[in-house]
Amino acid sequence: MNYVDVFLKAINGTINWTWRSITFDVPWYNNYFWGLILISLVVWILEIVFPWRKEQSIFRRDFWLDAFYMFFNFFIFAIVISGFYKVFEVLFSEVGITMTSLSLLDISHWPKWGQLMIFFVLLDFVQWFTHVLLHRFDLLWRFHKVHHSVKEMGFAAHLRYHWMENVLYKPLKVFAVMVLGGFAPEQAFIVHFTAIAIGHLNHANIKLTYGPLKYIFNNPVMHLYHHAYALPKNRRYGVNFGISLSLWDYLFKTNYIPEAGGKIKLGYHDDDKMPHSFFKQLYYGFKKGD
User: Fold this and answer.
1) Bridge partner residues of 217 (DSSP)
2) Helix, strand, coil shares of the chain as percentages rounded to 5?
3) 3-class DSSP state for residue 228?
4) Distance from C-alpha of 127 to C-alpha of 52, rounded to nearest angstrom
5) Is the pLDDT of residue 104 over 90?
6) Which end of the chain has fewer CB atoms at under 10 Å, N or C?
7) pLDDT in tens, 233-261
């Protein structure tokens, strides 16, 4: 097996797929490029029409930095890393580890909506648990600080995160697929777009709680306190770790919403050390002092 060829073909394939998405040459339900843009525009318009923090500018602080992060993390970095993922896939297959070898639950006979629901819930729990680890361990927190350096919340802050988080999250997402025998990832575009929409709304300058559904779905009021500068003394590692679902925070007692005014200081105690430029943030976190 020529691993260099595998590596280059994977990168070339991802570049071609991205270009085909930009030029509308893929089905709409698989067009993550324009899907991301459409969801972003809809949530941004909602921010403009129904602002929670009315003093906040439409082009808030770091708006363009966060907008660039959206495309970098979803497309540019995806192209760069795709070759490595493909090589690992080949290596694992050569030792007998495939997408079905770790299957714990065969859902191939389930209705499509049931398959999507169990995938959504399992994936969200894996991401919630990973998010807790990002706050709990200093090595991981150093990279996660990039996301928490946001000082004014807006939809694009959703995807401001260090590229090392991609390296950590992606294998865990693949693991979630592997334990579900018979699940075809092509079915997952609904989960993908739903997660993007919820994530954008969670970071948006919009006051939403979803009423009684707040105990199931994460929301902007709850997530704002995840980014709070001041945390309760008994929650020094953080609160409200939910990604799409708030359910896990209520189950594991990591929920915290003291009020809903929306005007709180964001960040963390030494966030003044965070470089302001994207390129400097690329290398942030690799030194112990970061």
Assistant:
1) 245
2) 60, 5, 35
3) strand
4) 27
5) no
6) N
7) 899 899 999 999 999 999 999 999 998 88
